[in-house]
């Protein structure tokens, strides 16, 4: 699956640049966007429900008055205050189950990625909510996704629980953990995160950046109040990851000597096979011959509640491309395990 992960990252970057251009051309057509957002065209039932929840809480006026830091108040919030829990009733709702099952009877992971992104956005929005009704909500932009890991096969006959909660907050950025659990084993009162290991099927971490809607400048996010030792440990872990991200932005990471030597060996093997294919291994294939490409023209139906291209839509398209690439290369239907890193640029 590692072969498809790299393709996923490339597809995400390409699709994002295309989508932003299309979305910007519709930015002034607020009437059209409102119609699309109200109908939630082409969205999964869970994503549509999450966006409906976000719209019902939205206090944004039609004016574009600049919101200064002085007019906003920040208040420490606990992880539980912004936690959101959704349920997939697969055992009792055959129509819902059919929407999430592929031709092999397995879960459609691409649709789950849309739901993960939608729920993470709701959690981030809820945490950064300002109780001052006279102020506008902040714009929460998805910066990256760290390791989407599927630890166990996701059943399509049992009910599932989709839950998200804030684990770390900096000045203007915050991390949201999003998980999928088996409903019958899920304990909502269990401590985070160790006690929920038994029921957890998938885990991921989304990083958001808070910005003022009118100016696009960074905005202060509500601090995170830590109430348990488990939350403090998670906070410290994500703080270390945030510091690593900052250091990598300033200084690109240098490959270790072992990695450099391994890459050099692969390049030498590939060069030999390209120059003298008859001497190459009969089951070997050059990496450039495994690539697939897909161009996507984003439409107004593909925007999120903020008028930008929906990140879940991009991840869904990229995952489907990675799945097809793996399928063609391996000659057998692949099983999803994890995504290494997704960066929106």
How would the blueprint of this fold be written?
Blueprint: H1 2-25, H2 30-39, H3 45-57, E1 77-78, H4 79-82, E2 84-88, H5 94-99, H6 109-127, E3 139-150, E4 160-169, E5 173-182, E6 200-211, E7 224-225, H7 229-250, H8 257-275, H9 311-330, E8 338-343
Helix pairs in contact: 1-9, 3-6, 6-9
GO biological process, one term: acyl-CoA metabolic process
Domain HotDog ACOT-type: 80-214, 288-345
Keywords: Hydrolase, Repeat, Transit peptide
Describe this structure in words.
Keywords: Hydrolase, Repeat, Transit peptide. Pfam families: 4HBT. It comes from Spumella elongata. Helix 1 (2-25) runs antiparallel to helix 9 (311-330) and helix 6 runs antiparallel to helix 9 (311-330). By secondary structure, the protein is of the alpha+beta class. It has helices spanning 2-25, 30-39, 45-57, 79-82, 94-99, 109-127, 229-250, 257-275, 311-330, and strands spanning 77-78, 84-88, 139-150, 160-169, 173-182, 200-211, 224-225, 338-343. It has nine helices and eight strands. Strand 4 and strand 5 (173-182) form a beta hairpin. It starts with a helix and ends with a strand. The protein is 40% helix and 17% strand.
Architecture per CATH nomenclature, i.e. the level-2 architecture: Roll
CATH class: Alpha Beta
Taking pLDDT < 50 over at least 5 consecutive residues as the criterion, the unreliable ranges are 1-39, 60-67
Main beta-sheet annotation: 6 strands, antiparallel
- The tally of domains stands at 1
The secondary-structure class comes to alpha+beta
CATH topology: Thiol Ester Dehydrase, Chain A
* Secondary-structure element pattern, one letter each: HHHEHEHHEEEEEHHHE
**Which strand order does the major sheet show?**
2-4-5-6-3-8
> What's the total count of β strands?
8
Q: Quaternary state, please?
A: single chain
Mean pLDDT: 80
- β content, as a range? 15-25%
**General form:** globular
CATH homologous superfamily label: Hotdog Thioesterase
Secondary structure tally, helices:
9
State the helical fraction.
25-40%
What Rg, in angstroms, do the CA atoms define?
22 Å
Please give the alpha-carbon distance between the first and last residues. 23 Å
GO molecular function: fatty acyl-CoA hydrolase activity
Organism: Spumella elongata
Family: Belongs to the acyl coenzyme A hydrolase family.
Protein name: HotDog ACOT-type domain-containing protein
């Amino acid at each position: 699956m590692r072969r498809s992960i790299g393709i996923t990252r490339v597809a995400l970057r390409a699709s994002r640049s295309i989508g932003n251009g299309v979305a910007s051309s519709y930015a002034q057509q607020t009437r059209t966007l409102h119609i699309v957002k109200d109908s939630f065209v082409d969205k999964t039932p869970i994503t549509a429900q999450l966006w409906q929840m976000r719209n019902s809480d939205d206090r944004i006026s039609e004016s574009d008055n600049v919101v200064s830091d002085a007019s906003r108040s920040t208040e420490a919030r606990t992880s539980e205050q912004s936690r959101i829990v959704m349920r997939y009733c697969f055992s009792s709702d055959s129509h819902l189950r059919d929407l999430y099952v592929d031709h092999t009877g397995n879960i459609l992971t691409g649709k789950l990625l849309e739901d993960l992104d939608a729920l993470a956005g709701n959690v981030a929005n809820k945490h950064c909510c300002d109780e001052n009704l006279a102020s506008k909500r902040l714009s929460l932009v998805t910066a990256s996704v760290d390791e989407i890991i599927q630890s166990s096969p996701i059943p399509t006959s049992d009910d599932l629980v989709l839950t998200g909660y804030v684990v770390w907050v900096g000045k203007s950025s915050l991390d949201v953990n999003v998980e999928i659990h088996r409903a019958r084993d899920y304990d909502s009162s269990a401590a985070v995160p160790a006690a929920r290991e038994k029921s957890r099927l998938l885990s991921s971490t989304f990083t958001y950046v808070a910005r003022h809607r009118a100016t696009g400048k960074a905005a202060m996010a509500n601090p995170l109040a830590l109430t348990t030792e488990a939350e403090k440990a998670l906070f410290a872990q994500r703080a270390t990851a945030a510091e690593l991200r900052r250091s990598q932005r300033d200084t690109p990471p240098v490959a270790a000597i072992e990695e450099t030597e391994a890459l050099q060996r692969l390049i030498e093997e590939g060069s030999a096979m390209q120059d003298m294919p008859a001497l190459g291994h009969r089951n070997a294939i050059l990496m450039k011959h495994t690539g697939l490409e897909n161009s996507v023209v984003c439409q107004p139906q593909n925007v999120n509640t903020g008028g930008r291209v929906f990140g879940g839509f991009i991840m869904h398209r990229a995952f489907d491309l990675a799945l097809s690439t793996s399928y063609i290369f391996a000659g057998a239907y692949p099983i999803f395990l994890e995504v290494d890193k997704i960066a929106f640029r």
